[in-house]
Amino acid sequence: MVTAVRLAKFLADAGVASRRASEEIIRSGRVRVGGEPVLDPARGVDADDDVTVDGRRVGADPVRRVVYAVNKPAGVVSTASDPQRRPTVVELVGGPERLYPVGRLDADTTGLILLTNDGELAHRLTHPSFEVAKTYRAVVSRPPVRDAAVRALRAGVELDDGRTAPARVTRVAADTLELTIHEGRKRQVRRMCEHVGHPVVSLQRVRIGPLRLGDLPLGRVRLLTAAEVDLLRSAGPSRNASAGSAPRRVAASLRSAPKRGPSGSGGRGGRRAGS
Ligand code: URA
Questions:
Q1: Residue 164 CB partners (closer than 8 Å, separation 6+)
Q2: Is the pLDDT of residue 151 over 80?
């Protein structure tokens, strides 16, 4: 018996886009099942269905699932394309697969971002219900950061879109904080720091769930190993450096990429390592 899955999940599993982006693609009328346009992301389909996006058959061939880690430079956007024609993380990776970024970093944030064609994994790492922790290193203005500000960030602060969940916060220098959060609201860390009187000067993501940026140079890309991907798949509140608890063992830390091209900011191509 063939099992039906939601159309949005079917597209995500086929590597078309993340589950949420697939829902948008369906609603915009680009998807047909058996030749008929379908606008409902929840419509059930199975492997025997003829599903097309923009007229191209989807799901007929098994897709090799890949996950890349990128150390994103400032000025590079974490969308697949940019109307302002700024460089994108997808261009940094290059290669034949149809990849999309897992979540977002602000254009001016640097650090760890993942790209994949694995819709299930992207969903797991970004959907708030899985509470996958992300750790950021923030250099802030108006140092020193006092205990009261650290305590407020740990307890949660009232932002214009609601109170933030408790965060794990470490002061690593008078002007530098490490914050671990699992929410993913827009510009959340910047707004949290600003709220306690310390606007962010620079922000870097150093960890996603069990995966640390390590010494992957800025602008470089590395294909994750199967073991690292398995670890990410099991990321969640119990496998995280979750807010309020001591950090658990970090299972994977990205090593320096072999020198195959210039490291540094911006640019595209020639930066994939270990792929
Ligand atoms: N929080 C922010 O403020 N910016 C990011 O890019 C990520 C988290």
A1: 156, 157, 181, 183, 185, 188, 192
A2: yes
If you take atom 7 of ligand 1, which residue's CA is the nearest one?
Answer: 105
Tally of structural domains, the chain = 3
Of ligand 1's atoms, which has the minimum distance to the CA of residue 191? 3
92 and 198 part of one domain = no
pLDDT at 264 over 60: no
The pair of three-digit structure tokens given for residue 63, joined into one six-digit string? 């897709």
Our answer to whether residue 106 is catalytic in this structure is yes
- Domain containing residue 98: 67-127+214-236+255-273
Statement to judge: residues 93 and 222 lie in one domain: yes
**Ligand 1 centroid to 193 CA: how many Å?**
11
Tell me the torsion sign for CA atoms 180, 183, 187, 193.
negative
**171 and 156 both lie in a single domain:** yes
Residue from 149, 216, 220, 157 nearest 183 by CA: 157
Which backbone phi and psi does 163 adopt, to 5 degrees?
Answer: -75, 140
Catalytic residue selected from 40, 49, 82, 106 = 106
Please indicate, yes or no, whether residues 99 and 218 belong to a single structural domain of this protein. yes
Any idea which of 50-54, 140-144, 245-249 has the lowest mean pLDDT?
Answer: 245-249
Phi, psi of 79 (to 5 degrees): -105, 165
Task: Give me ligand 1 centre to Cα 105, in Å.
Answer: 6
- State the CATH number of the domain containing residue 117: 3.30.70.580
